[in-house]
Specification:
This protein has 289 residues and is mainly alpha-helical. 47% of the residues lie in helices and 3% in strands. The strands form 2 sheets. The protein has a two-stranded parallel sheet. Strands 3-4 form a two-stranded antiparallel sheet. A hairpin with a 2-residue loop joins strand 3 and strand 4. The chain is globular. The protein starts with a helix and ends in a 24-residue tail after the last helix. The relative contact order is 0.14.
Amino acid sequence: MAGKGKTVVRTLEDLTLDSGYGGAADSVRSSSVSLCCSDTHQSLHGGNCWHLTESMHSRHNSLDTVNTVLAEDTEILEGSGQSAKLPELEDVPWSLGEVEGALGKDETLMAGSLPPEVLARLSALISRALVRVAREAQRLSLRYAKCTKHEIQSAIKMVLSWTISVNCITAAVSALSLYNMTTGDKFSRGKSARCGLVFSVGKFFRWMVDSRVALRIHEHAAIYLAACMESLFRDVFSRVLRSALLERDNGIPKFSLESLEQAINSDSEIWGLLQPYQHLICGKNSSGE
């Protein structure tokens, strides 16, 4: 009788933060994400413990990037001398207009208009950092099947350099503090406005759900990730502006794809982060210095 009268209690957080793929961590049908560390899967996939399966069942294949099964044939990689590459994002949780607006928040960064091709290239490079942070957050979220601000913060510290990670975490803490202090107008203003962000928190939340970072995504995790990426854009762009390789006309920087690539290649803190390879190269620029 006691067993029949016992009800399953779900907290308010569980009810409101269900990502759409189910509310139970042990539900097979709730998500197709699985980290294969068993002997069977290791024998099938060459002992690679970072193998996420059934990515074909996502709602949007172009967004299914974090858990994409990558071909990692060791013989082919060793023969060609190439490393496995990160999946390229076809859709990112920001627009070029939002990138320009995020850069415009810092008046020192707007020293001339940016050509659209430079903005597009910068967006493509930063998307690689987004994939790295998301994959690390996905790994950290496996134990409790939930991604919170703590997993995002830990992922940022692991992936980014010390200087850049401090700036990103500071921006994330500031955005969350503003969000928590503006509870009075939560129905009249969006989350991004309440956080003081240009990037859409809702887009980042949806991207994290579609990419299956975890079974449940806390809204604070989306705020942290959006603030981190916005800060990373400004950090990378400020380093490009300070680069001595950037051509200038009467003190006004002349942006081009070549100058952008050269400035990034000479910076040891961001060059490895923005490379297309899964292996993260730390503390070296393109010349190995």
